[in-house]
Write a structure and sequence with these properties.
Elements (H helix, E strand, L loop, with lengths): L2 H21 L5 H7 L4 H11 L4 H8 L3 H8 L13 E6 L1 E8 L2 H5 L6 E7 L6 E6 L2 E7 H4 L1 H9 L6 E4 L5 H9 L1 E8 L3 H10 L8 E2 H7 L6 H9 L12 E2 L12 H23 L1
Parallel strand pairs: 2-7, 3-6, 8-9
Antiparallel strand pairs: 1-2, 3-4, 4-5
Length: 284
């Protein structure tokens, strides 16, 4: 599937979210397809090919109460005693995420002396702004809701003293493996000690499952720091690979998402549907 196809599919999914919110999840395949200016057969083919489940089943993953269902049936309890080193698996099928954190001294310098490459790529979730150093990807944000200029200002503002260079070539291999969910992607994480702990915890949440902000706080040994954990989750610079979208409120509410709640719902729906389809893929 081409990058252009992936971006197109996200736009269709984004429209489908709005239509399902407006008309409910009981709309027929034909009604939903007509509102998307597609034939039912084309709509069925598009989503079955992209996600691996039927559009009708996919609607269930886009509903507003999907988060509550995830907490009931796919809640991950993070082991407080589990130690995570400087590498870990993001558990995105066959994708391995290897990462290292900058030293506190490097973090304090705000990127001084650092060259960061940046480029916009098409992704399954709309336009993705990717940034990276020679040691790995250090930024990944989605611009579908926030917009191009605001996304650039947001990610660049995290490293105010760095030198930014527009260049896709150093980033392309990491981007290819990240969105193909195959191979190895390297991350070069820039954050405070608390943020790094929170992001380590997020790396332990498997695709298709979720956790809560309070569970993360418990797992890093700071059970009362739920608000600070929420802030750290929101400051995650590498969305998707460090899966901040898998953090929910205990009530089942989605909570916030830095790149827009429609993107968070799309990410959760995409992963949930693929997790359901995975056993049949493995058996084939």
């Amino acid at each position: 599937m081409s990058d252009a196809d992936q971006s197109y599919h996200y736009q269709v999914m984004r429209r489908a979210i709005s239509l399902i919110d407006e008309g409910g999840s009981q709309q027929s395949l034909g009604d939903l397809a007509a509102q998307l200016d597609m034939s039912p057969a084309h709509f069925q083919r598009l989503f079955s090919r992209w996600v691996g489940v039927s559009p009708k089943r996919y609607q269930q993953y886009l509903t507003l109460d999907h988060a509550k269902s995830l907490l009931r049936n796919h809640m991950t309890t993070l082991d407080v005693s589990q130690e995570v080193g400087l590498s870990g698996t993001g558990r995105l099928h066959d994708l391995f995420v290897r990462w290292e954190a900058m030293s506190p001294g490097e973090y304090a310098k705000g990127g001084e002396g650092l060259t960061i490459y940046q480029h916009w790529f098409d992704s399954p979730f709309g336009p993705a702004l990717v940034m990276g150093t020679d040691r790995g990807m250090c930024g990944l944000g989605f611009g579908a809701e926030m917009g191009v200029e605001a996304s650039i200002a947001d990610l660049q503002g995290r490293w105010p003293k760095a030198r930014f260079v527009e260049d896709a070539a150093p980033l392309q291999p990491w981007v290819d493996t990240a969105f193909a969910e195959r191979g190895e992607t390297r991350l070069h994480m820039i954050g405070s000690p608390l943020q790094i702990k929170v992001w380590e915890a997020l790396l332990r949440v498997p695709a298709g499952q979720v956790t809560t902000y309070s569970e993360i706080a418990q797992s890093i040994g700071s059970p009362r720091a739920v608000r600070a954990v929420g802030t750290a989750v929101g400051r995650n610079p590498v969305s998707w690979l460090i899966p901040c979208h898998r953090a929910l409120r205990k009530s089942g509410a989605l909570g916030g998402y830095h790149w827009g709640l429609p993107v968070k719902r799309a990410l959760l729906a995409y992963e949930g549907a693929r997790a359901e389809a995975q056993p049949s893929e493995s058996a084939a």
